[in-house]
Each structure stands twice: as structure tokens, then as C-alpha cells.
């Protein structure tokens, strides 16, 4: 059985304090796009648009988890996971983003929750993992304040059905990526190119989080938080111009999302041109209800340089020199030590305002075969090993991290990259649906067992 490499001086005993999890997202694994009354999300529209997805694929059937959820539960249980992070599809529960619940959709999630509990794995659902109903996008999407209130109504529908068994909730996944990639530069759904005019989506997503937090707590939830994609920002050089660019990017990717939740105020946005956010009375109090945890999804650092002279944005994204990369190439450099730096920066920046942190996602894709079979994914094991050591190092230096989550439990439809990138601990043959644990699956199972020993 694989075991954790203990050659490093990092105090791995810190890992005994962690809960261990793995994650998936509804749109990426469920398939069953037209079954049981499911509605249409912005991602359905995106993948149906020619040339939006690199390999021209769609997410149906993907891993077909709508029909094969029991196999996923068995994988989670066999790993020894404390929790399984999955997402609930808004359009499977509330097809038009308004009105009553689709009972057939909620039945699916109720079965999943029951089977997880029976298997001894705590369900840890995410209410929003990017699948906004197209009906709401047609009315402005996250640019519209009303969407936050529609999200609260959807949350109530889910809480009414599952709240008797589900105690721990993520409200939103990666509002930064919704704003930056979905509305600002159009790389992800809904595919809009608004640049800084996308910033109202920041506030409306955070307002949705605040409203949903209130709903879930009134329903008896034990813990509620959100998780965002955060990055440690590296300077390309030591010039004042580069320092200014780094500051601007840190605001746009990190602080504009974290500060309101943790401090109750937006940071000074002068470096971004002082954009006006659509804040109304009482909004910040809702947003800043102290979360029970703060989730950090981390994949890689970001190297920033000064912007070109004609750039509409105050920074330039650059390759990170001299480090290995994942299957995404130079856009995803591998530097585990930057996760330690990020966690310690959060701990020192937010102090007592920071609740326990959870690593909500961490993982890597590498080239792998399409057909079923054993995958000896040593590169993934090295990546995960390095980042777990980075978490342990941050904990040893005082950061409180309560949970670590691998992205992902199984291979899935990887958004605009279709099936060209595989993140799973278990390989999925997308022709047959067969799941086959990889070497990294066995490694993670052994690590969990050793951390508990």
C-alpha cells in the first residue's frame, strides 16, 4: 500500500488535526440533462455554443452520476473520507430559478444524502457551483440584484427538504471565477466580456451568500460558509510599477471577495479605478455574518507584471518561470510553498475575524488515457503530497486549517476544457462510465489512514 513520504522535515503530525474530503460538482458529473424536469443553466447554453468548449464535447452523460451515484458514494466511503463535497444543481431543484421545487430533482439529492450518511460519510453540499438558471441570466444574471433574492428562495427549497439531515453547507463556489472568467473576460459561462463593468456581480454574489446564510441558520445548520478561488500573487520584478500591479491583482482576485465577508467592508479600490459597487443599506451586515468557516480553493500562484501601455487593465498575467506545470501548461505552475504563504497571509491579514479555514479544492490534471484502466499518476501524487505539506507547514506556523479537500473524487467534464483535462482520484471511462481508482486514490486512502493512526 502506498504511504506518505516522510523525508521532508515538515511536521506531518499536523495532518492528524485535519478532516479529509474530496469534491465534485453537479454539472460536471451528473449528466441526465433532460431528465426528471431539470431546467437549463448558463452552462448548458455555453456548451451548446460552437467553439466554446475546446473539444466540442458536452457534459451529458459525463460520469453519469445521476444514475451511478452509488458508485461515487462507495468510492468516497472506501477512501475513508470524513466528508464528501458535492454540489446541488439549481436547475434540477428549481428549473426556472423561480417558483416551487422540482420534487424529482430533490429526490435525487435526498437519496445521495441518505446513502452518504449510511456509508459513514458526512454530506457537505455546495448550493451554487456556477449553474445559474438561464431564465435568471436573461434578466441580468449576477449583474442583477434580484438574483441574490432568487438564490435565497432556492436555498429555502433545499433546506426544507434536506436540512433535517444536512448540517454543513457551502453557499457559493468561487465567486471570483464567476466574475473574472464568466462576466469579465468571457472564458466561462455566461461568456460575457465586460471587464470592470462585471464588478457588480461581486456584490450580488456576496449578498446571495449572506441571504442564504440567514436561511440555512434559521433551518438549523451547524456550519455555513463559502469557498473562493484564491491565489498567492508573485511579482515579476521588484519595480514600483510591478508592486502596483501586484496590489491591483490581489484586490481583484482575493481581497474584494474576502474583505466584505470577513471585515464587513470592501477594500480601497482606488487601484482599480474606484469602481462604484451597488451596495444598499444593510447589505454589508448580511454579507459579514461571521461564517463558520472560510473556504480556500487553491491550485497555483499567479505571477504579475506591469501592464502594457495600451492595456485596459492595470496588470499583466505572466508565466511563472522555473517551475513545473500541470496539464494546463504555463497557466498552472506548481509551487506548493505559495499555498503556505497564502494561508499565513490570510491568518495575519484577518486575525480574529478569520474563522477556521477549509481547503475547499486542491488538485491537478495531467495527461491520462481515455479508456478504463489503472492509472499510475505519480505526478498527481507529488502535487497533492507537496500541497498537503504546505498546509501542514502553515498549521505549524499558527494558521488554523480544519479540512483538506481533493479536487476531484472522479474525472469529470472540465468546463471549457471538456474532457481534455482529468483531475480525478478515480479514472472515468466516459464511454462506459466505468470508474477505476488511480494510484493517487490508494495514496490518499493510505494518507487518511495514517493521519488517523
UniProtKB/TrEMBL annotation:
Name the domain of life: Bacteria
Is this entry keyworded Hydrolase? yes
Look at the named UniProt entry and state the broad enzyme category this protein falls under: hydrolase
InterPro entries tied to this protein: GH, Glyco_hydro_1, Glyco_hydro_1_beta-glucosidase
Statement: the UniProt record of this protein carries the keyword Signal: no
Query: Which Enzyme Commission numbers does its entry carry?
Result: 3.2.1.21
One Pfam family name is: Glyco_hydro_1
Which protein family is it in?
Belongs to the glycosyl hydrolase 1 family.
What is the designated name of this protein?
A: Beta-glucosidase
What species is this protein from?
Answer: Gordonia phosphorivorans
